[in-house]
Design brief:
The complex is a heterodimer of chains A (274) and B (673). With 274 residues, chain A is an alpha/beta fold. Chain A folds into 2 domains: 1-84 and 169-274, P-loop containing nucleotide triphosphate hydrolases (Rossmann fold, 3-Layer(aba) Sandwich), CATH 3.40.50.300; 95-166, no CATH class. Chain A has helices spanning 48-56, 77-82, 100-108, 113-121, 128-137, 153-165, 183-198, 210-216, 234-238, 241-248, 255-264, and strands spanning 10-19, 22-32, 37-41, 62-67, 70-71, 85-87, 171-175, 202-206, 219-224, 227-232. In chain A, the strands form 2 sheets. Chain A has a 6-stranded mixed sheet with strand order 6-7-8-3-9-10, with helices on both faces. A 4-stranded antiparallel sheet of chain A has the order 2-1-4-5, covered by helices on one side. The longest helix of chain A is centred in the C-terminal third of the chain and has 16 residues, at 183-198. The two termini of chain A are 30 Å apart. Helices cover 68% and strands 3% of the residues of chain B. Chain B has a two-stranded antiparallel sheet. A two-stranded antiparallel ribbon of chain B has the order 3-4. Chain B has a two-stranded antiparallel sheet with strand order 5-8. Chain B is globular and about 70 Å long. Chain B has 2 domains: 2-279, ABC transporter involved in vitamin B12 uptake, BtuC (Orthogonal Bundle); 328-647 and 662-672, ABC transporter involved in vitamin B12 uptake, BtuC (Orthogonal Bundle), CATH 1.10.3470. Classes of the chains: A alpha/beta (274), B mainly alpha (673). Chain B: This is ABC transporter permease. Chain B: It is a multi-pass membrane protein. Chain B: InterPro entries: ABC_transp_permease (IPR001851), BCAA_transport_permease (IPR052157), LivM-like (IPR043428). Chain B: GO terms for molecular function: branched-chain amino acid transmembrane transporter activity.
Chain lengths: 274, 673
């Protein structure tokens, strides 16, 4: 049911990634509209993180990546970020030497000659308001001055989400942000995601927490062996026998039951390395 | 043509040394993941041991010596050579057990600092313990010649090359064919797994260290008669050796071995080219020494591919950083103390203070680049030197007045900094240290020591004046004027405050972000490549200002102020002072070469000749006992003090925001005073 329009906020066409002889992403076509939450699911090793890496410029790929209609597949990672495309990482990847607030500040004040002069002449205090707003959104305003290592993994990931949302982000790719959150926190995170999307930001969500994914996503893509094998609304995906087969390797099982039990358990097993 | 061939063969002896050093480096790297800057210094000890034994039968030990003969009947050749090789093997084993094993989980920077410290320590110890003025090497290999295609070739050169290839082949066979060798490589990648498979990784690594030390010692002992005996050059043969080891990706014994021989021959051919009419004058000196840098750049950029880095058990992070805040009272206190010290001293003591201030600026350039941005650079002193030489040209030839002369000269250094920084876009850690060292080496020998670029009267520098005031360092019999000292104080203070503002601002945060995680930095929109180049540019600018001040403080520039040794010492000292803090830079300035500490040793204790060995030994000790640098120790100490103050004056704690960093800078300030 995805609407192919030329003005999608994020669009990939025939996006492929090859590692040696292995095809990690095979002609993936995907769109995310402004204000939409799109889920990307699939079994471990399906190529979900590879897809995020390819879209954000962290791995070599072929095919097209468009941001608001403009081709950006030739751009470096940092330029894609400046253009409004942000991501989070499975492992958090916060800056251990900086406080939580400073982690967000670096996304707001990029280094260069202008920043250098500002540092010297006026001093460049971090933009506190934008940082506080983003931290409040993920419920972490009270840890702004702590170091990442002092936080629980779930909190670190939320800092990563906050860091991805500051600095004029238009579309954000979240790689397993809810892993490490308990059920309650995960529900709360779902509500935050809706609020983020309501502000007009496009969200691509990868997660193993199926209750979260099925709950908040407007549309889902299912990836298996690097290929999109199904796409549609959450309800359609739940009942799709191909999806069940991909997850369990057998088509002879009653779809809904299995998905309910297997997917809602919130599997958090680690994914294949990038 | 036969002449050309003759030079090709002549270069084989030196080439053999490169070759064996290189394969030894590859072996040690394969076994431990460490790039050993001290490989040449270890071999240097062996050469002098043999020379002393063959002269008067004295076996020189680090402390004391044993007489095994006399001038009339010195030790016979074979036992002398065996003893010499054994000392190199022993030093290598000691290096492993005492220095590198305790540091195996320390950050790359700790290993670089320690191995540079060891290199300087051994070199200084050789100069102290051996009579390097009068000792000479006696021939060991047969002295005959044979004729190959019209060229007269020394048999010894061929034997050297043969030995080098044999050593390379043996190391290759050990690592490739024996179970022990394979286990050694495995243990380097996964110590725990090797332990579980029943191997003792330490013993495996110790074996390789010993073999590599013995091999390096042997080749140098064999070649010393042909190459000549001198206490400096062998230590620095490690630079070309590292270059050719990088050609083989620090993994291939065959490539490293052959490339070493080829590089040696090529350098000899460059000497031969000097005899050609059309060969330009500027290329007549130092071009050979610039080759290692060329080789490294070619290896990294044209040959492509990545150099494998070794895994280790949970690596320690870089030392933590306390972001500096400028507080008026501590700042004024430090500056006032320095001013007072200048006024209360004279001559050599005042000169020591001035030198310390300048060195702290150069150390600050390392704090910014290495401490904040995480890029290990050994080229800072080359940046300083470049600015100093530019200063000479700008003031003498073009009459550019102070202080514009400093700014312009520092900008020249900045440009060089960006060029040297380019390799940092592809490599990091110890390998970057190797590249910057090769660059510093090339600049030293090809630019600073090049007669074609040196005016007949030397590199004069015009005296600085400002608004009619004479700021020159000497006036009449006064060795160091107050005017000049105060000028240095002002320049250093202004630069330091500017750098502190950078560190506390967006630039500092971005640097720290790049240091802690380049991938994540790119994902928040930081241009990592541009940021690294910015760091190199800023660092080179600071070092450049320091170089200009050194120039003005001498009146005439000599390459001796900017040698690679000084650069290595600066990194090691800055590391030990605390590479992540401004106070660390102040400490480094205090103990740096010719600074206050040196004057104290020289004037008060009359131990000036021990400066290098004390400084190198001290920093080696610091690096081993405190792998994250003295800054960490200082911060801890300051924290303790703070806690004590806090308990004593609980009521005032609320408004007491003094950071550990400022406390230690106050402490340093009083020291400098």
């Amino acid at each position: 049911m995805s609407v192919e329009s030329s003005s999608s906020l994020l669009e990939t066409r025939r996006l492929s990634v090859r590692y040696g002889g292995v095809v990690a992403n095979d002609d993936v076509a995907l769109t995310v509209e402004a204000g939409e939450i799109v889920g990307l699911i699939g079994p471990n090793g399906a190529g979900k993180t590879t897809f995020v890496d390819a879209v954000t410029g962290f791995t070599r790929s072929t095919g097209e990546v468009r941001l608001a209609g403009q081709r950006i597949d030739g751009y470096s990672s940092h330029r894609r970020r400046s253009g409004g495309m942000a991501r989070t990482w499975q492992a958090g990847e916060l800056f251990g030497d900086l406080t939580v607030a400073q982690n967000l500040a670096v996304a707001l004040q990029r280094p260069g000659i202008r920043a250098l002069l500002a540092d010297i002449i006026t001093g460049s205090a971090p933009p506190v308001e934008a940082i506080d707003t983003a931290l409040e959104m993920v419920g972490l305003a009270d840890v702004a001055d702590r170091r990442p290592s002092e936080l629980a993994l779930g909190q670190q990931k939320m800092v990563g989400v906050a860091r991805a949302l500051v600095g004029g982000t238009r579309v954000v790719l979240l790689d397993e942000p809810a892993a490490g959150l308990d059920t309650h926190e995960s529900q709360h995170f779902g509500e935050e995601l809706r609020r983020i999307a309501a502000a007009g930001i496009g969200v691509l969500l990868i997660d193993h927490d199926m209750s979260l994914v099925l709950d908040v996503c407007d549309r889902l893509y299912v990836l298996d062996f690097g290929k999109v094998i199904a796409t549609g609304k959450p309800q359609q995906i739940r009942d799709d026998p191909r999806v069940v087969a991909a997850y369990l390797g057998s088509p002879d099982v009653e779809p809904s039951d299995v998905l309910d039990s297997q997917l809602t358990s919130g599997t958090t097993s680690p994914q294949k390395g990038r | 043509m036969s002449e050309f061939l003759q030079f090709v063969f002549l270069g084989l002896s030196v080439g053999a040394v490169y070759s064996v050093f290189a394969t030894s480096l590859v072996g040690v790297y394969a076994a431990t993941g460490i790039i050993n800057f001290a490989q040449g210094s270890i071999a240097l000890w062996a050469v002098y041991t043999v020379a002393a034994l063959r002269t008067d039968g004295t076996l020189v030990l680090p402390i004391g010596d044993v007489s095994l003969g006399s001038v009339a009947s010195p030790t016979a050749m074979l036992p002398a050579v065996l003893l010499g090789v054994a000392t190199a093997a022993a030093w290598a084993l000691i290096a492993h057990l005492v220095v590198f094993r305790p540091l195996r989980r320390a950050p790359a920077l700790a290993n670089v600092a320690a191995s540079v410290g060891l290199m300087l320590f051994l070199q200084a110890l050789v100069s102290l313990r051996f009579n390097t003025e009068s000792l000479a090497a006696l021939p060991i290999l047969p002295e005959g010649t044979i004729t190959v295609a019209g060229a007269v070739v020394n048999v010894s050169d061929l034997l050297m090359a043969g030995t080098a290839i044999a050593v390379g082949a043996l190391l290759w066979a050990y690592f490739g064919l024996t179970t022990r060798g394979v286990a050694t490589r495995a243990a380097s990648e996964d110590e725990l797994a090797a332990r579980l498979s029943g191997y003792a990784p330490d013993r495996l690594a110790a074996t390789v260290w010993t073999i590599s030390g013995a091999a390096s010692g042997l080749i140098v002992v064999l070649g010393a008669y042909t190459i000549g005996l001198d206490p400096v050059s062998y230590a620095y043969y490690v630079v070309p050796a590292m270059a050719v080891a990088l050609v083989g990706r620090l993994a291939s014994f065959a490539v490293a071995s052959v490339s070493g021989l080829v590089l040696g021959s090529f350098q000899a051919v460059l000497l031969w080219a000097n005899t050609l009419d059309w060969w330009p004058a500027w290329a007549q000196a130092g071009l050979g020494d610039a080759m290692p840098f060329v080789v490294v750049v070619v290896a990294l950029f044209l040959l492509g591919g990545k150099i494998p880095s070794r895994g280790s058990l949970g690596e320690l992070k870089m030392p933590a950083v306390t972001v500096p805040r400028i507080r008026p009272i501590p700042t004024i206190a430090v500056v006032a103390a320095a001013a007072l010290a200048i006024l209360l001293t004279a001559d050599s003591w005042r000169f020591g203070i001035v030198t310390s201030m300048i060195l702290s600026l150069i150390a600050l350039s390392l704090v910014l680049l290495t401490g904040y941005l995480g890029q290990i650079s050994l080229a800072s002193i080359a940046f300083a030197g470049t600015a100093g030489f530019a200063l000479s040209k700008l003031t003498v030839n073009w009459g550019v007045p102070f202080p514009f002369s400093i700014v312009l000269s520092a900008l020249v250094a900045t440009a060089l900094g960006v060029v040297v920084g380019v390799p940092a876009l592809r490599i990091r850690g110890a390998q970057l240290a190797v590249v910057t060292l090769a660059a510093a080496f090339a600049i030293q020998n090809f630019v600073f020591n090049n007669p074609a670029l040196t005016p007949y009267e030397g590199h004069q520098i015009s005296e600085p004046t400002l608004l009619g005031m004479n700021l020159s360092v000497r006036r009449g019999t006064e060795l160091t004027t107050v005017a000049f000292s105060m000028t240095v104080l002002v320049v250093v203070t202004v630069m330091t405050l500017l750098v502190m503002r950078l560190m506390a601002g967006a630039t500092g945060r971005a640097f720290l972000a790049v240091r802690s995680n380049e991938r994540a930095a790119a994902s928040v929109g930081i241009n990592v490549a541009a940021t690294k180049l910015l760091g190199f540019a800023l660092s080179a600018f600071l070092a450049g200002v320091g170089g200009c001040l050194i120039g003005y403080s001498r009146g005439q520039l000599s390459a001796a102020s900017f040698t690679v040794v000084v650069g290595l010492t600066m990194l090691a000292i800055a590391y030990c002072g605390g590479i992540t803090s401004v106070s660390g830079a102040l400490i480094a300035g205090f103990i740096g070469p010719l600074g206050v500490f040196y004057v104290f040793l020289n004037q008060t204790l009359d131990l000036g000749q021990y400066y290098q060995v004390i400084a190198a030994g001290g920093l080696l000790l610091m690096a081993i006992t405190n792998p994250i640098g003295a800054a960490g120790a200082n911060a801890e100490l300051a924290n303790k003090l703070k806690t004590r103050v806090r308990t004593a004056r609980l009521a005032r704690v609320a408004e007491n925001g003094t950071t550990s960093l400022e406390m230690s800078s106050v402490k340093v300030g009083t020291h400098v005073g």
